[in-house]
Each structure stands twice: as structure tokens, then as C-alpha cells.
Amino acid sequence: MHLLLIADTHVPKRAKALPPEIWDAVAAADVVIHAGDWVDVALLDELEARSARMIGVYGNNDGPELRNRLPEIARAELDGVRLAVIHETGSAQGREARCDRSFPDTDVLVFGHSHIPWDTTTPGGLRLLNPGSPTDRRSQPHCSYVTADISDEQIRNVELHRLPRRTG
């Protein structure tokens, strides 16, 4: 099972549209995971229409229309991997312990908010993944997203993809 992880798209405020690389990755994914801050419901509609399966949550920049359609926390079991998605996990300091306490029956937690890619495993064995943002790099050198695979009840081949800088 092939996954695409994105967050903090902020369309159309930070970008008019998702980069073509993201739409290629959507087409190749069995499951698309969006960890919030969509900003406009039109992107949710388009992503749902173009995804084989989509799992998403709302973020702090998402208004009532998105909050009515998306949960704060999404959970799914994907080929034996217990996945949770949330927008915010709080500050980086103490994140692993906080997430271990909040998500004890989870194998992988996908989150966003900071626009900073993150990939660690907690002392309790929880994999924490933040794909960064494909549209708003903030202080990062590149916009980014993550792909991964699930096989034999494990997440594998987790890869951070850096997008080329856009001009104009």
C-alpha cells in the first residue's frame, strides 16, 4: 500500500494550487493523508475526487465548512498499521512523551502545523511523521511532502521529497 502524506497546503492563500508533483503523487497513492490547514473547501473536494482514498483532518486555519466535514483526529487501520492524523501536537520539546501518552494504541502519527518535516520514533515505538508543506516552506530550505509504503504490517520506505522552488 502506497501512501502520500501532505499538510499545511494553505490553498489558495499561500499558493494558487498544489504543485504538479503533488498531483502526480496523488495519482500514484493508494491512500492520501492530509494533516490539516487546507484553508479552502475546494481543495478538499478536488483531493477527494482525485484520490483512491483520502484521510484528512482540519487545522487551525480551517473554517467552519472544513470543520463540518473533517475530524480533529482521524484514525484508520491500514494493512495492520494503526494510523492517527492530527494537525497540532504542540511544541517540539516533549513531543515524543506527549504523543506516547495521547496515542497509546497507534503505530504511526501524522501531523502538521509547523511546516517543518519531522520523522522520529518515540520511546514507546510510535512513529511521528510531519511532511512539512508542499506550498509554504516558511523557514525551511524547500517545500516538501512524504511518501511511504505499508507492507507486512509495517510502515516502510518513508521518504521526504523536496520540491523545487517556484518563481513567479
TrEMBL record:
<comment type="similarity">
    <text>Belongs to the metallophosphoesterase superfamily. YfcE family.</text>
</comment>
<dbReference type="GO" id="GO:0016787">
    <property type="term" value="F:hydrolase activity"/>
</dbReference>
<keyword id="KW-0479">Metal-binding</keyword>
<protein>
    <recommendedName>
        <fullName>Phosphoesterase</fullName>
        <ecNumber>3.1.4.-</ecNumber>
    </recommendedName>
</protein>
<feature type="domain" description="Calcineurin-like phosphoesterase">
    <location>
        <begin position="1"/>
        <end position="152"/>
    </location>
</feature>
<dbReference type="GO" id="GO:0046872">
    <property type="term" value="F:metal ion binding"/>
</dbReference>
<dbReference type="Pfam" id="PF12850">
    <property type="entry name" value="Metallophos_2"/>
</dbReference>
<dbReference type="InterPro" id="IPR029052">
    <property type="entry name" value="Metallo-depent_PP-like"/>
</dbReference>
<dbReference type="InterPro" id="IPR000979">
    <property type="entry name" value="Phosphodiesterase_MJ0936/Vps29"/>
</dbReference>
<dbReference type="InterPro" id="IPR024654">
    <property type="entry name" value="Calcineurin-like_PHP_lpxH"/>
</dbReference>
